[in-house]
Write a structure and sequence with these properties.
single chain, mainly alpha, 15 helices
């Protein structure tokens, strides 16, 4: 797996930073007493100011039931915004915020580590460019034809909540797919990467198209595909052939359909219908690793390890030389 030097350095820095960050210490302050004494006069009763009722934060269970309210209270007090008439001294504000943080963390971890749901992520412009490059063997900044990705709250352009799909995105993805394939089919090395079959003696156009799709779709969708997926895209080839298009034009038409498919444009993991936490499937894990480490689709080795399963045990063995 291709771990670039700057990525390795970042991971090492992150590990050291986490190790050097002291754990929050319990403080002598009891935030519930402080809220009752300093805030209850305004933030309780039938019409609490701002709709913020501190009485619901009176019990220990409130950290589980109202974590957002506790976070908001900690922020307002820490910033000196509350209480407005007589702000607390800085040491008291910091002690209150630390006490809230400690209790929220303790409540969040009381049931052990529980993973949250995985959001659906559209490929960012840079990820799209890298994925097209590896999929078609073309060195083309195809992402430059797409709309800019908005930055999330932390400034990153790969935050799931900002990677929405607008009508202009749909139009531009169709144009980008056509441009990339038209460019690739004219380059001998790129062409050999994905047009692995052609009609000839004993090989019908339909059979050649099926061979191409059976190899292309698993790489494009980053996981094995069902026969129905191949048949679905083969129908595009057949429709173009009926219109009198050449074999190349017809198969490119089918491949364009794959490149605007949600299975290509989005990193979506199979939904969890069990109602219980579960391990990530091997292909989703391979995709998470590849887009984290090198910002593109899984390479042949990573997909081969996912094929072996379960749990990509071979990743551990490869890492440890077993």
């Amino acid at each position: 797996m291709r771990l670039l030097p700057f990525q390795a350095g970042f991971l090492l820095f992150a590990a050291v930073a986490v190790a050097d960050t002291p754990a929050p210490q319990n403080t002598a302050v009891d935030g519930r007493v402080l809220l009752k004494a300093q805030c209850a006069a305004c933030h309780s009763g039938k019409s609490p100011v701002g709709g913020f009722d501190v009485t619901k934060l009176a019990g220990p269970a409130s950290f589980r039931e109202y974590p957002d309210a506790w976070s908001k209270a900690a922020m307002r007090v820490h910033n000196g915004e509350m209480p407005p008439q007589r702000p607390l001294a800085l040491p008291d504000r910091e002690a209150f915020a630390a006490w809230v943080q400690t209790n929220l963390r303790a409540e969040a971890c009381s049931a052990g580590m529980v993973a949250g749901p995985a959001p659906i992520r559209r490929l960012s412009r840079s990820q799209y460019t890298s994925t097209i490059r590896d999929l078609l063997n073309v060195h083309l900044d195809i992402g430059a034809t797409l709309p800019l990705d908005g930055a999330g709250g932390e400034g990153f352009d790969n935050a799931a909540e900002t990677l929405f799909l607008s009508p202009i995105h749909a139009e531009k993805y169709l144009e980008a797919a056509k441009l990339a394939l038209d460019y690739a089919v004219k380059d001998p090395r790129a062409r050999a990467k994905f047009l692995i079959a052609k009609p000839g003696p004993g090989v019908t156009p339909d059979a050649a198209a099926r061979t191409i799709l059976q190899e292309f779709l698993p790489r494009a969708f980053r996981r094995p595909v069902a026969a129905a997926d191949v048949d679905f895209h083969l129908d595009f080839f057949r429709a173009a052939s009926k219109r009198g298009e050449t074999f190349d034009d017809a198969i490119l038409y089918a491949l364009r359909a794959a490149l605007i498919s949600p299975q290509f444009l989005f990193r979506a993991e199979p939904p969890n219908t069990t109602g219980q936490p579960r391990l990530l499937d091997d292909y989703s894990l391979a995709t998470r690793l590849s887009y984290f480490l090198w910002g593109s689709e899984p390479d042949g080795l990573l997909l081969a390890l996912a094929d072996e399963g379960p749990g990509m045990k071979s990743v551990y063995e490869l890492k440890n030389g077993e």
